């Protein structure tokens, strides 16, 4: 008896504890994440229009036509109902069409590469507003954030002013990761030798959790950072305090920072090499390495030369064939004696 009461008490305590949880995905603080949350709820509601009736009817049929219910009507020769067929096929078809339209519209509207057109549902963004740019690098196992316009960088610390559009440019060093701040927007993959983008805005001041949502090795579970949504004045103060750091993030420092480490503390750099991020994306931080963009340019030039060579060879061949045809037509017939 005591054991059962203890179990029930633990269950109730767990429910009380969970009641205070904030489901950030469904209650975010950024407009993009808010739209994604709305999309989840609408999609779920549409699917429940099919799931709930199916479950209910399954239980109802099992109860109505149970073995000992002699009052149930028995129709062994029944095999078709046009109205039932219309409901069974028509309702799911309409819901699939609705989900398809919703998905198509939302995919384009919430495209992470698409510049923002609004701060929230009631406030559009002026075309003159310039977004804050942040260059994000997923390292083993930490996050590097570079602010090119401010000339500063941080490890495992991200700041952005409230109601200011932010354009993230995202890449990785060795392993594919996933950049995710649930309160801000959906996750975006970070891949070596490539750049992905995310446009988002935070609408409420606060401290939010950011992390990698893609397994990337031993230190993956500690690959977390704090995202601070602040006023513009507080953001400017943070930039000034970061600029006061005596550390410089150049290629040599980055090479050391990029070495695998876990539970990396917050670190700030007062100066950053202007071309460092491009070197990271193109995998040529080491000046002796060939940049990806140079390899691509070389491949394109080689392909152009090959295409030109093939074209010239084809042209010469066509000329020879044409000349042979002309010669054959113009041969003077030999007179017979």
UniProtKB/TrEMBL annotation:
* Domain annotation Cytochrome oxidase subunit II copper A binding: ranges: 129-241
Q: Where in the cell is it found?
A: Cell membrane; Periplasm
* Gene3D superfamilies named among the record's database cross-references: 1.10.287.90, Cupredoxins - blue copper proteins (2.60.40.420)
Q: How does it sit in the membrane?
A: Multi-pass membrane protein
Where is the Cytochrome oxidase subunit II transmembrane region profile domain positioned along the sequence? 17-114
Which molecular function terms from Gene Ontology are attached? copper ion binding; cytochrome bo3 ubiquinol oxidase activity; cytochrome-c oxidase activity; oxidoreductase activity, acting on diphenols and related substances as donors, oxygen as acceptor
Keywords attached to this Swiss-Prot or TrEMBL record, sorted alphabetically, are:
Cell membrane, Electron transport, Lipoprotein, Membrane, Oxidoreductase, Palmitate, Respiratory chain, Signal, Transmembrane, Transmembrane helix, Transport
Residue ranges annotated as transmembrane are 39-63, 84-105
Q: Which residues form the signal peptide?
A: 1-19
Q: Which InterPro entries match?
A: CcO_II, CcO_II-like_C, COX_ARM, Cupredoxin, CuRO_UO_II, Cyt_c_oxidase_su2_TM_dom, Cyt_c_oxidase_su2_TM_sf, Cyt_o_ubiquinol_oxidase_su2
Write down what this protein is called: Ubiquinol oxidase subunit 2
Q: Which organism is it from?
A: Duganella fentianensis
Q: Which gene encodes it?
A: cyoA
């Amino acid at each position: 008896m005591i054991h059962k009461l203890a179990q029930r008490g633990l269950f109730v305590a767990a429910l009380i504890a969970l009641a205070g949880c904030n489901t950030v995905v469904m209650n975010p603080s950024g407009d993009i994440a808010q739209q994604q949350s709305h999309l989840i709820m609408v999609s779920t509601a549409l699917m429940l229009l099919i799931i709930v009736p199916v479950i209910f009817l399954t239980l109802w049929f099992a109860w109505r036509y149970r073995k000992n219910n002699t009052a149930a009507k028995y129709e062994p020769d029944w095999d078709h109902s046009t109205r039932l067929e219309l409901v069974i096929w028509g309702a799911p078809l309409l819901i699939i069409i609705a989900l398809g339209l919703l998905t198509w519209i939302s995919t384009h509207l919430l495209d992470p590469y698409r510049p923002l057109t609004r701060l929230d549902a009631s406030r559009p963004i002026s075309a003159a507003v310039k977004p804050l740019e942040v260059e994000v690098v997923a390292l083993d196992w930490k996050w590097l954030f570079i602010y090119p316009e401010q000339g500063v960088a941080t490890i495992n610390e991200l700041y952005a002013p409230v109601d200011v559009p932010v354009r993230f440019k995202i890449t990785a060093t060795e392993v594919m990761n996933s950049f995710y701040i649930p309160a801000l927007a959906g996750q975006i993959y970070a891949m070596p030798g490539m750049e992905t983008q995310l446009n988002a805005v935070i609408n409420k001041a606060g401290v939010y959790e950011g992390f990698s949502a893609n397994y990337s090795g031993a230190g993956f579970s500690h690959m977390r950072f704090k995202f601070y949504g602040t006023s513009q004045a507080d953001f400017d103060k943070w930039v000034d305090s970061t600029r006061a750091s005596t550390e410089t993030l150049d290629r040599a420092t980055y090479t050391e920072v990029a070495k695998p480490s876990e539970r990396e503390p917050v670190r700030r750099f007062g100066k950053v090499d202007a071309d460092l991020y491009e070197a990271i994306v193109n995998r040529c931080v080491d000046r002796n390495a060939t940049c990806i963009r140079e390899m691509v340019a070389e491949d394109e030039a080689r392909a152009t030369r090959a295409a030109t060579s093939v074209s010239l060879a084809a042209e010469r061949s066509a000329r020879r064939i044409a000349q042979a045809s002309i010669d054959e037509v113009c041969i003077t017939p030999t007179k017979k004696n």
